[in-house]
User: Fold these one by one.
Assistant:
Number 1:
Amino acid sequence: MTYTTSNTASAQLNAFQSLDVDQQLALFWFIYTEMGKSITPAAPGASTVSPTIAEGLFNQVKDLPHDEQLQLQRDLITHKNTLISREYGAIGDTTKLLFWYLLAQGMENGTVSPMPEDYKLSQEADALFTQIKGLEFNEQITLFRNIVAPMGVDPNNVEHDSETGL
């Protein structure tokens, strides 16, 4: 799969990926809460496959205890070879955006492990957040797609993992 990005978007993608896992998750949450009214509605309507796929994956997460929900999100970012990471890796990029949108909604309504109320972004994550807010809408969506696309594990490009049995 090939991704095309501008130099600015590449720098922002690299900056996002250089954050630790929890800061990446927190930044996603802050993006959703502050910018969700304009950005996230694009995800459900833009999905090129049935939203049922994203909803099915989301429902697997929703049914887990909160600590496992959080670990699963970390596993997606760190490419841990799990069944859900493989399922995620097999879906299209726009459906991945929809899945993260559903996770954010779940966090908001309490069905997914919520963000601690007093959580503060690191200085690096906050600076990146400011940059993202300054992007045009299409640039934001492209950046988010480029962020979520490589997460998870592509089941077609991974060898057998003796630790997980997958």
Number 2:
Amino acid sequence: MKKWFWALPMFLLISCQQLPMQTEQKRVIEDYIQAYNRFDVDGMVQHLHPSVVFKNITNGQTGLQTEGLPAFRQQAEQAKQYFSHRRQTITAWKFSGDTVTIEIDYEGQLAIELPNGLKAGDTLRLSGQSVFVFEGHQVIALTDKS
């Protein structure tokens, strides 16, 4: 018992130092999700790094990738036209240093007809995850997976 007892204060010190970082990361992600749900592109980009890389991966295939804040903003503005309502709900969190993975449930009502046969008014429901990589207090990479 005495052999590990000296390590307990160090473990507690490290754990306590990580909590403020995790709290800040969680706040940034919650801000992003709330802005996404409101179709608020300015709110979505407020914590993104100027060199942010965004990827959308569906069934293991990258369907969309942007590099840089202007490209992300343009894509986010275009995506607003596809849905009359959309909502991401966070169901789980995993923190690992500069990377935070959230599990999400997604629901959106289409505003337009899609080439795959879905029609305006149809509701789309998905589960997936979003991986946020931080550089300081900004998101440098965001990957959505479904």
Number 3:
Amino acid sequence: MFRVIPAVDLKDGKVVRLRQGKENEVTFEAENPVEVAKKWVEKGAKVLHVIDLDGAFQGRMRHEDIIAEIASFAEVQVGGGIRDFKVAKRLFDLGVKRVIFGTIAVEKVDEVREFAESWERRVMIAIDSKKGRVAVKGWKETASLTPIQLAEIYDDLKVSFLYTNIDVEGLVSGIEREKIAEVVKAVRNPVYVAGGITSVEDIRFIKRSGAAGVVIGSALYTKKLKFEEAIKVEYEKV
């Protein structure tokens, strides 16, 4: 089932949106993350995408208490600063459905593969694309891998992928269709897409491409896109 998933990005105890993932370029801020999460669930969200931005930038998660509270009433996938497997297991204990591995999926391939084999369908590999290369460490550095090369390392396992095009992330400027279609077509496992999604037509295109869902942040928080309209695409034949 195709899913339309609101993003709940956490920084300094608040929900924020950042322009292209840059730490100091905040474009939106809300005080109560739990209330924000509840609002999306009340509007019909089946899954929430929760990222600990402080964890992504500093390498250690800072919002586990908030994440646990959100996980108590919603299905959540969580990322940001999960740089070891003890943290991932602890998140599962807190009720988190899926953990998202980014930097560690590039730096510790064998260990991530082993973990993913033990936790089938509960590991999501972040494919963060910056100018055609995979970005790591809070998107501050790039690896030599292309997005598809990273996907191929894990595509024989029961995982899912989150493809984010950083070049358009947070700009509310629309998606780069060819890049999305290329990644989805190349991968056997479910691919979720984030970055630049601005309109219902963007969502429809991503669904038609064969993706498993979309993660939407800035367009919802700036009210450029109404969640009530976006969620309808889950049920549409496109």
